[in-house]
Amino acid sequence: xxxxxxxxSEEIRKIQLTGKSTYIVSLPxxxxxxxxxxxxxxxxISENNGSLVITPKRAVKPERPVEAIVKISHEDNSDAIxxxxxxxxxxxxxxxxxxxxxxxxxxxxxxxxxxxxRRKLVGVETISDSENEIVLQTLVSYPELSIENALxxxxxxxTSMHKDALQALKxxxxxxxxxxxxxxxxxxxxxxxxxxxxxxAVQNEKMLREIGLSNPKDCLGYRIIVKFVERIADHAxxxxxNAMVIGGSIETPxxxxxxxxxxLSLSIFNDAVKSLYERNxxxxxxxxxxxxxxxxxxxxxxxxxxxxxxxxxxxSLRMIIESIRRTIEYASDIAEVVxxxxxNKIIETxx
Length: 351
Fold this sequence. Notes:
By secondary structure, this protein is of the alpha+beta class. Helix content is 58%, strand content 11%. The chain has eleven helices and eight strands.
């Protein structure tokens, strides 16, 4: 192990053993004087990324829900109000108070906020609702829903959406296609939850362990993967929307080829996710190699439908095929992130 250079502001102290099992390290006198400490004062020792952080107890603030207040008015755009609430949720506020000044919250705004909480924000409840204030609080405890479990749920829903969208295309089932579109809200809920947890965990090692990660550097990788899964779900929605537009039957040979490409995309996506859960570098590498056949498949299918279908169907089917190809590409992108997270597994160590 290489020795680290000591900075000018650092001191080297030896660990001493007193008795049979107690290790002690003396504190620099200059720091003790600067902190205005004396014998008998209490210190808080916490671990952060393998280091010990020593803080005078009087300087440690008691943990309490972090609170934010948002002022709104009748003139505020509905989308702007939603963006404010989501932004505060993502950065980690546990209590969000939405208030008006000198006027009541409109019924439209009230319904908008409650619908946002129900559809998009995991673990958030409305704990107070008055004429000029709505109070939201995050009640979920982190160990009950780890990042891995939330991401796993996102992936399962996304896979189901893709399968159902293809089924809606085969059977011209508009109701099933609409169900796929509605499920996108569920993916968004878990996406926002995971992003919130990652933002908190990257600054707090204790929280990092509680949500199921071991290294702050993993947070960026997981953040990117969440976005890719969200994009794959968006493409399942596009497949469903175009299936509704087509509305009529499609020749069996064409449906068969589209189904084959769809099954391939799901296989690649599932392997990419599996490589993440298993920290499997080799599986992720094989996913990237397998994904390279996406473009030739798309070109072949595009030529096939151009020869056999009406112009009104060609446009929607091309968009469906493109969405399947994009699903494969995003799965490959997930696998690339897994490679970066597990690159240490291919490094040979000389002893």
